[in-house]
Specification:
The protein is of the alpha/beta class. Helices cover about 35% and strands about 25% of the residues. It contains four helices and six strands. Strands 3-2-4-1-5-6 form a six-stranded mixed β-sheet. Helix 1 packs across helix 2 and helix 3 packs across helix 4. It is globular, with a radius of gyration of 14 Å. The model has no long low-confidence stretch (mean pLDDT about 95).
Length: about 160
């Protein structure tokens, strides 16, 4: 069994013309750091898939302070307007190709994070607060997933 952790980036600056360039606020950095400590204690990730957008990259950097990744990649399929089927297929391909990695962290955005959970675990489409992480149990052999929980900075 593998664990897939789907995380929404921390709080970001207000919407602007270049959405990809938005930074985390101080609250967003704090959320990401807090969730990074929580992950280190409960689900230490050893693989990372992160959106190329600045706020997701900054979130991943904060989480990485307490993680050691065997594999890390920036993926343009997990941007806000990304296609969840493509993202899920790619994630499953990576999991199969990197069998030494057991806990996969995906750092992305709304709405793709909700759609990705639903793609992997049909009937489950949580709404993510900033910094929230959905926990999914994934059977690599059968390619079946089970939604376990969602955890946010204000309840961990």
């Amino acid at each position: 069994m593998k664990t897939i952790l789907i995380m929404r980036h921390g709080e970001a600056t207000p919407m602007q013309a270049d959405d990809a360039a938005r930074n985390l606020t101080q609250t967003g950095h704090t959320e990401a750091e807090k969730m990074g400590l929580w992950l280190a204690k409960h689900y230490p990730p050893d693989a990372l898939l992160v959106s190329p957008y600045i706020r997701a990259q900054q979130t991943a950097e904060n989480v990485a302070k307490n993680a050691e990744f065997k594999f890390s990649e920036t993926c343009s399929d997990i941007v806000p307007e990304g296609k969840p089927q493509i993202a899920a297929d790619y994630l499953e391909t990576l999991i199969a190709a990197h069998s030494q990695c057991n806990t996969w962290l995906v750092v992305a955005h709304m709405p793709i994070v909700s759609y990705l959970v639903d793609q992997l675990c049909p009937g489950n489409m949580p709404i993510f607060n900033t910094g929230a992480i959905a926990v999914i149990s994934y059977d690599e052999r059968t390619q079946r997933s089970q939604y376990m929980s969602i955890n946010a900075p204000d309840n961990v």
